[in-house]
């Protein structure tokens, strides 16, 4: 799913014009970005937590030359899914009918 498909789904679910759904989505995403950028966590109970994680400086190897390089410290956004989100993703698929082997008998 891409951004436009998400806008379409929100617009259809809430009976909104697509332009309004797009503005709402943009507002939500901007709030998430600004909150994480400032170093704060944003927790959506039942969904997950967006936060900023710091990666320390380290050394590595250039894959083409094999030379050692220094990789500077950086900050990266991180999403940690909540328990309800994990459970929804991992719930077993419901079967509408018996398995094929039993249905053939």
TrEMBL record:
Keyword Flavoprotein recorded: no
Domain of life the protein comes from: Bacteria
MF terms (GO), sorted A to Z: DNA binding
Transmembrane segments: none
Keyword Zinc-finger: no
InterPro entries reported for this sequence: Hist_DNA-bd, Histone-like_DNA-bd_CS, IHF-like_DNA-bd_dom_sf
SMART domains: BHL
CDD domains, per database record: HU
Keywords: DNA condensation, DNA-binding
Stated family: Belongs to the bacterial histone-like protein family.
Descriptive protein name: HU family DNA-binding protein
Organism: Mesosutterella porci
């Amino acid at each position: 799913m891409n951004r436009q498909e998400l806008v379409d789904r929100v617009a259809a679910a809430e009976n909104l014009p697509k332009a309004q759904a797009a503005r709402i989505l943009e507002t939500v995403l901007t709030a998430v970005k600004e909150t994480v950028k400032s170093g704060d966590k944003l927790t959506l109970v039942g969904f997950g937590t967006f936060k900023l994680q710091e990666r320390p400086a380290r050394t590595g190897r250039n894959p083409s030359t094999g030379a050692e390089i220094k990789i500077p410290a950086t900050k990266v956004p991180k999403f940690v899914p909540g328990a309800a989100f994990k459970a929804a993703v991992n719930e077993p698929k419901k079967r509408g009918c018996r398995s094929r082997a039993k249905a053939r008998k």
